[in-house]
């Protein structure tokens, strides 16, 4: 059975806290948009998996003026927040928000690119993570690009990086009690993979690592390509 590490039924709390929980959140969204802006044509199709309140979808749509995006999330609260973000940005014609997880989404086409921000570490490595990555690969056209950003098990440095991350979150205004919850999740509450393990799962899914895009404490962003 899939272990639920975090429920996403309070989009308001997520919006209030995410920039404290993850200092640099907006920059982490800007980087995938810049990469896709550099490699995709303007009329491209992009899938956003686990869009939450859809901030990355709006950032991507602005960076790719002629593109059409599908943004998925299984949480009804997040879908409602995402639709509000898209409406406020006047992007309803270009961003379709769908309530679905990746496995439950009916593919009508293959995408030029997919963006998966802060989702992977929610999914256990009991077969579900590998299947998620296979579904991601299936959603892309051969040669399509995926940007995957998730928290990683950083090995010997992990304790120090977690401590530094928690200090930054406190500095950003996160209450102490919430910072302790964050520490617990970073220390093993989330489903963190080592780099070596993620490489194995990516390779089985037919996704090649083309570049490391960023590394912020344990949060690692990679540019992937679906094998042709
Ligand atoms: C930490 S939030 C990240 C939201 C957004 N990407 C961001 O950067 O703010 C993780 C989101 O992934 C969604 N999620 C979890 N499992 C998923 C799956 N299998 N497919 C699609 N979305 C999923 C959750 O509902 C949640 O909204």
Q: What is the element string, with H for helices and E for strands?
A: HHEHEHEEHEHHHEE
CATH level 1 class label? Alpha Beta
Helix content: 40-55%
State the domain count. Answer: 1
Please name the CATH architecture: 3-Layer(aba) Sandwich
What is the number of strand segments? 7
Radius of gyration: 17 Å
**Sheet with the most strands?**
7 strands, mixed
Secondary-structure content class: alpha/beta
Which residues form runs of ≥5 with pLDDT under 50? none
Ends distance: 33 Å
Q: Name the CATH superfamily classification.
A: Vaccinia Virus protein VP39
Please report the number of helical segments.
8
Task: Name the ligand types.
Answer: S-adenosylmethionine
Residue share in β-strands: 15-25%
Name the average pLDDT.
95
The largest sheet has its strands arranged as: 3-2-1-4-5-7-6
